[in-house]
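Consortium newsletter contribution from the modelling node. Members have asked for a concrete example of what our holo predictions look like. Here is one, prepared for the adenosine-5'-triphosphate complex that several groups have been discussing at recent meetings.
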Amino acid sequence: MKDLLLKFLKPYWKQITLAIILLVIQAISNLYLPNLNADIINNGVAKGDIDYIISTGGFMLAVSLLLAICAVASAYLGSKTAMAFGRDVRRAIFYKVESFSQAEVDKFGTPSLITRNTNDVQQVQMLVLLGLNLMIMAPIMAIGGIIMSIQQDVVLSYSIIIIVPIMGAVVGLMLWKATPLFRSIQIKIDRVNQVMREKLMGVRVIRAFVKNEHEAKRFDEANRDLTATTLRVNRIMAFAMPSLMAVMNLATVAIVWFGAGRIDSGAMPIGNLTAFLTYVMQIMISVMMAMAMFIMVPRAEASAERLSEVLHTEPSIKDAPTPAAPSDVKGYLEFRNVEFSYPGAEEPVLKDISFEAAPGETTAIIGSTGCGKTTLVNLIPRFYDVTGGSILIDGIDIRDMTQQDLRDKIGLVPQKAFLFSGTVADNLRYGNESATDDELWHALEVAQAKDFVMEMPGQLEAPIEQGGANVSGGQRQRLAIARALVKKPEIYVFDDSFSALDFKTDAKLRLALKKETAGSTVVIVAQRVSTIMDADRIIALDDNGVIAGIGTHAQLMETCDVYRETVYSQLSKEEIA
Amino acid sequence: MSEDNKPKIQPTRRRGGFGGGRAAMMPAEKAKDFKGTLKRLINYLKPQAVKILLVIIFTIVSVAFTISAPKILGQATNELFSGVISKQLPAGMTKDQVIAGLEAQGQDQLAEMISGMELTPGEGVDFDAILRILIILAGVYLLASAFQWLQQYIMASVAQGTVYRLRRDVDKKLAKLPLKYYDDHSHGDILSRVTNDVDNIAHTLQQSLTQLVHATVTVIGVLIMMFSISSLLALISLIVIPLSFIVTMLIAKQSQKQFIAQWDSTGNLNGHVEEMFTGHNIVKAFNRQDEAMERFDEENERLYKASFKAQFISSIIHPAINFLNNLNYVAVCVIGGIRVANGIITLGDVQAFIQYSRQFTQPIVQTASIMNILQSTVASAERVFELLDEQEEIPDTDHSRAYRGRQNDTGQSAYAFL
Ligand SMILES: Nc1ncnc2c1ncn2[C@@H]1O[C@H](COP(=O)(O)OP(=O)(O)OP(=O)(O)O)[C@@H](O)[C@H]1O
Ligand SMILES: [Mg+2]
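And here is the predicted structure:
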């Protein structure tokens, strides 16, 4: 955590220094005020000296005005610095993740990265904010309070040695008892959430199988469990405040008793008693604040750890220092003995994959689920780097191009169509910002998406919600296809992009696509044989990620068992011929 | 579950992002029908009426003890003070003789002060009397704490019992809603009512409600005590109090605006992060990292500005109130000093008064912030009640009836463990 704080707070060292100075002034004047109070009572009120009260009172007001100004100024600096710190860390994390390849994203997991970029930053920022106030203030106040109370009366000050440990013990006991319970509350809240979520997801099954009673019982158990634990914690906490108050108040009583003896013997003027009480109060409050901070630190530390982890991860895919010169040809794709295994996996997913594709050709990839089709096409835009062999585009190893140039050549339609929030047009222009409306409509027409976009309110300007939640799965797929078309790339990659379409739409779309992509290389991953029967080249993958056969439909029907099996399982006799 | 793939309207970003924060961070969302919902929420508490009554009584008792403490402490100070003074006076004389002597010497003020005290010249501090007072004081402090503890202990079961019931009722209701309801509402929205909204209510019941009772009783009690000590000093303090209230309300209103802005930009930023990270592949495939970062910077800057302002403005309240408090202190000292000198009130009373006036501002600041929390709680309650009011499916099987009967049983026994 220290590294992270140092690194990101460094640019603000001037503000921080100033804030600390202001806090010290505050602490001093805070400590001085009870002194003035005592003075007013001792020399003014007790002696009936009105002039003295007014002049000292005026001075006291001046001091408290200074205090207020310092407090506002340090709050300004403190919150500005803490929030700027949060902003900078947040940006650093986001930028870092944007530089990650898919391998690093996989390593952390998307949800975890989101939490790190939001919650974890927030946690650390909170600590900085408090740190710039309380963490500096509490020790100054505690030490200053001790010095000042010794000044009031040395002997009475010994009471602090007794009171503070008692208070510490009470607070510590509470924390020790309650902290694990707080954690278990969180787990139980998650449990209630989980049961509820499962119920919502499975509502139809539950109704269909009349499982209501069972489900109600399950929820009730989780609910009871949460209630009982929360109750336990709240009862412990119910004890915390009153017992702390009791300790403080009894300390006051004891101090007055012993103070009375000191005053009677003439060792201490009476006004000092009140001041002494104020200082002891301040010391006790500082101790409490410090202890409260102690709970925050481990949490923030865990968050800081998670942030540092992201910041210290280097992307595994980087641009070559000296990119190769662009070649003259366009649309050539070649796999040369490609092997790939996911980081940490024992077996390679893909082994010895070799094929070539030229512009105007369609290459289809078919194979059972989980055999590595998506993995294969993900290697083309370098989401992952091959672990053996090489991939060449236009005769150049893709690792020798810049990622930008490489990806400019590729129009990808991923298996899981993903749209961004914004309008239909925003999404379509994602790969080509200068596309005209006509071009968009054309792409929509090819993708068989024109009809439903025409019916959407606002058409091209119709809103799309996050993740494309407000359009159907098939509509999402077609919009994703149109998005790739608008880009006009050299190489199209369709990863199972027709799965959500009915046969008629599928056929119409392929016909239109054929014309549109005539000058480009097309790679299609498909589950349905009918989708790819007329491809120039069909690559049949077996379950081990090895090419079982490569050739046209007719060729594979003769030579490749894996392909034949797939075909027989899907098509009727007439269709095969 | 093909139904689950169907797109659903996402819940609005009402509760975007951060899980922590809670009440302090939560901007007041206005309920559509504040009064009606509040009434209904209070109705919902009815089964716990006896406990709530106990809570209120214990709060009053606890506050009464807390409030009487400075007065008792003041007596101890008085005793001590007159003891110290008496020591300096020649023994054997009566109080009247001393006063007469002082007046003869022209020390009118000292004479007047002593005339207001109960003392025997030359006697010194009466430790027995002080001990007696302090033992009472210790008892009062302990009782105040004990009752405060009892009150929070009971309130814990009131709060948890109520939210247990709320969650159970929501769950029961969900079992009876037509399937159409599930198509029209996203899971996120329903879940948020069961958890976030119910939690919000629980938190308010446990903390804010007792604080509100506590603050109200304290204000009334302290006012009574202040007036009983000196109505003149009390009137002076009464000028400061509305001022504190106005200052707090003004600042709180401004910071509220900023907190809402902060909430919004947090939601926007988190949404953007979520989207970019989930679609990481697409962003990369289309070379859009730069735009993603640009947009992030915009949202991030907006969040920074809003949260800085919210934080800064809300942290002005404390110093401002402190200053007003000190102003009050000086005013009380000046007026009180004159009165002590004139022997109208005692030093102990002035000190007690000062302690009271210090206790005054905190509950006021508290009340102002509880008002905000209450608003968001009622909004939460409204959302939960909305769900409970949904049109039910007509029960068509015996199962549902049997199930409901069984549920009621567990409902009754639910209180057994509270
Ligand atoms: N990110 C990853 N990390 C580790 N292993 C992975 C990862 N993604 C996929 N795999 C594994 O690699 C294998 C191939 O997965 P892939 O997604 O390429 O299959 P697929 O042929 O596209 O299947 P489908 O037809 O279902 O889309 C599977 O065994 C899968 O478990
Ligand atoms: Mg796949």
